[in-house]
Amino acid sequence: MKIINYLNYRVSSFLYLLRYIFLNLPQHFFYLISSKKKNSIEDQIIDNLNNNGYHICKLDDIFQNGESKHYLDKFHDITTEGYKSEIFKKKHEQYIQNFDKSGKHYIFKFIDNLSQNTLSKNHPLIEFGTSEKILNIINGYFKLHSKLQGTEIWHTFFSDKKNQLMNAQRWHRDRCDLNIIKIYLYLNDVDEENGAMDFIPNSLRNKKYQNLSKFSFGNIEPWKVYPNDHRINNLDKKEIIKFIGKKGTIVFVNTVGLHRGGRALKKERLFCMWSYVTPASLSRKKKFNLANDFKFDLSKPGNYALK
Ligand SMILES: O=C(O)CCC(=O)C(=O)O
Residue 258 phi/psi, 5° resolution? Predict the structure, then answer.
């Protein structure tokens, strides 16, 4: 049985690689002929993503001349409105009632809950996620025109009682593509007391801890999603990076590497998130809908990211 599972895994990995090459080639060529020159911070972020699987810096390092403040103010406005809503209060109640139960009730997603996931092209999350500067970095890393798969604003509810670690608070890989880049933009200060994320750079492909958890190629059984390997818990602490940062910190990370969210014990955690995949991703459906006001012009990378 073991040998059949092994062969099955090898064959599907190989087929996935073919699919990756075949489906990504057109956007790779398109990228080669249309890509823009990178500035030094963009180059640095791409290098760090390639070498370590993450980069952490300030939003001001990427967006200057008031652009960074413009975005932070817009996201602040969305959350301020959201906090006044009945749905936010209801979800907070549900969190308190279900505190000990498994599920994602410890997170409130502004976009899911407030706008039923329908975003217009002028929505600040869309403007930011498809901006030239961000796509210069993301597409520069993938070396192709990538797709914006999801964008959300998360509020992690907090409690000083320690419950079991749930869902994304357990070590896991994201699994729908060979590499997946997520951006987290902190809207409040994030540290160990309000759920800073942990990441293991050396768990990425061809690194020394790649075997801590299998990579998946569409064939992963649900029970493998949260690996139960004592080696992960016994890993030297210096192998684990904790994404701590003040408001306005931006984290780029390849979430195919092992990662987990932390517990929010003393205050809430608030951040925006964008996730990018390649055209070969197994998860083809975007996690948001675009309002009818959007006309695609595929010669623009920003438009392709939304297709
Ligand atoms: O920071 C967290 O709570 C977990 C986030 C996560 O696992 C993800 O976005 O894939």
Answer: -65, 135
Q: What is the pLDDT of residues 237-281, one digit of tens each?
A: 999 999 999 999 999 999 999 999 998 999 999 999 999 999 999
The answer to which of 172-186, 212-226, 253-267 has the lowest mean pLDDT is 212-226
Domains of the chain with bracketed CATH = 2-306 (2.60.120.620)
User: Residues lining ligand 1, CB < 6 A?
Assistant: 168, 174, 182, 195, 197, 255, 259, 261
CA atoms within 13 A on the CB side of 237: 0
b/e string for 157-192 if b means 16 or more Cβ within 10 A? Answer: bbeeeeeeebbbbebbbbbbbbbbbbbbbbbbbbbe
Q: Taking the mean position of all CA atoms in its chain, how far away is CA 101?
A: 24
pLDDT of residue 303: 87
Tell me the pTM: 0.94
261 Cα–ligand 1 center, Å = 5
Tell me the C-alpha distance between 132 and 256, whole Å. 24
How remote is the CA of residue 2 from the centroid of ligand 1, in Å?
32
Nearest CA to ligand 1 atom 4: 261
Q: How far apart are CA 35 and CA 51, in angstroms?
A: 21
What distance in Å separates the CA atoms of residue 45 and residue 99, rounded to the nearest whole number? 38
Within the chain, strands assigned E span 54-58, 107-109, 118-119, 147-156, 181-186, 198-199, 241-242, 249-254, 259-260, 269-277, 289-290
At residue 9, does pLDDT exceed 90?
no
- Bridge partners (DSSP) listed for residue 118: 289
